[in-house]
Design brief:
about 375 residues; mainly alpha; about 0% strand
């Protein structure tokens, strides 16, 4: 028996032995298909099962993703010439190692996967909102100038105000995502602990189906908001290659969403389980392994999509003016502190996203001066 499965197996054994009937009465959840944990060994000596192989591979892919992403973060942190943009970029980059680590934990500790996965979605929401803020900063780091920018745009109607109302709607669409993702994460953990989440079922009688539907709706609204924003600003921010940044991030969102949907259906329908492929291999192990592998690929791609080279200070550079059309370097010396520590700690500060949520609330309540950030 593989060592990393020992504790989950014992926990499951104790819970089922003490309440074997409660799984279908007190909680109402259908019984798990078998084999639940390790299937039959893949090797002749019995030392390697598919579950253990998945865990080892996921750990290897995650380690590469961590190292490559850390190198990119440090390149930005130690070459921090435009904090308004690069702090956001550092936070966006961290989605790769975060997904890699959480997915590895989900593969190594399969019974904890249901508790880990919603927080992965929550961090995705934080980074997605940060990407929206980055696009806003490309227009201008000053919200009054962004208002003037959108006020000058033709909204296709005779109504005054340009596209400020569209800007506000995009803002709300983006910042509902981290709020709902947080609520969904809390609700998932609570319903799982109460025995009514039921990962192994797609029935409308359990929380699993409804919380997934709510998450899909939230992601769809956020995608719509950032795409509308990009559609109205793409010409003026083209120099920053926003489409490449959007595609790099949306590819992670899309793959995570598609894989979650597919494996949710497959595991809920009890498809493909065999003597060597256990339920947890199919429902958590393989999806987590795929994400770890993809994060390894994205960690390399992000060096191109979020390259620090535009922020390298060259001889003769001068600080930028208030013009919103081009954002060169705000400083003529790097501002990241010793080994980039100041930049990294700034990227960890959640106030930027929290303020974005506050602004969205003020927009929804009809405030004439949301404040933005």
């Amino acid at each position: 028996m593989s060592l990393h499965m020992e504790l989950p197996r014992k926990l499951h054994a104790s819970s089922t032995s003490s309440s074997s009937s409660s799984s279908s009465t007190a909680t109402g959840c259908p019984a798990f298909p078998t084999p639940l944990y390790d299937g039959e060994p893949l090797s002749s000596d019995g030392s390697i099962t598919l579950s253990r192989l998945i865990g080892i591979m996921a750990g290897s892919f995650s380690a590469v993703a961590l190292l490559v992403s850390f190198f990119l973060v440090m390149r930005h942190a130690t070459h921090l010439s435009n904090p308004g943009e690069q702090i956001k970029i550092i936070r966006i980059i961290t989605i790769v190692p975060t997904f890699a680590v959480l997915s590895f934990l989900g593969a190594w500790f399969p019974t904890s996967f249901v508790y880990i996965k919603p927080w992965e979605d929550f961090y995705e929401a934080i980074c997605f909102a940060t990407l929206f803020l980055l696009l806003c900063t490309y227009i201008s780091p000053i919200h009054e100038e962004r208002n003037r920018y959108f006020a000058k745009q033709d909204n296709g109607t005779s109504q005054p105000g340009g596209n400020i109302s569209l800007y506000n709607r995009c803002w709300v669409q983006m910042f509902q995502f981290p709020v709902l993702a947080f609520i969904i994460a809390i609700a998932t953990d609570a319903t799982q602990a109460a025995g009514v989440y039921c990962l192994q079922s797609n029935s409308k009688d359990y929380g699993h189906l409804w919380l997934n539907i709510l998450l899909i709706i939230s992601i769809t609204f956020a995608l719509g908001g950032i795409l509308r924003f990009y559609g109205k600003t793409r010409t003026d921010i083209a120099e920053h290659k926003p489409l490449l940044k959007l595609l790099a991030f949306k590819a992670i969102v899309f793959l995570n969403f598609i894989q979650s949907t597919i494996f949710t259906y497959i595991s809920g329908a009890d498809i493909g389980i065999s003597s060597k492929l256990s339920y947890y291999d199919l429902s958590t192990g393989i999806p987590s392994l795929l994400i770890c592998f993809e994060m390894m690929i994205f960690s390399v791609f992000y060096h191109y999509a979020y390259s620090p080279k535009p922020y390298f200070i060259k001889q003769g550079m001068v600080p930028i003016s208030g013009d919103h059309t081009l954002q060169m370097s705000q400083f003529t010396s790097y501002q990241g502190g010793f080994l980039g520590f100041r930049a990294i700690t700034a990227a960890m500060n959640p106030m930027e996203v929290l303020n974005g949520i506050y602004v969205a609330f003020k927009i929804l309540t009809g405030s004439r001066n949301p404040g933005y950030y």
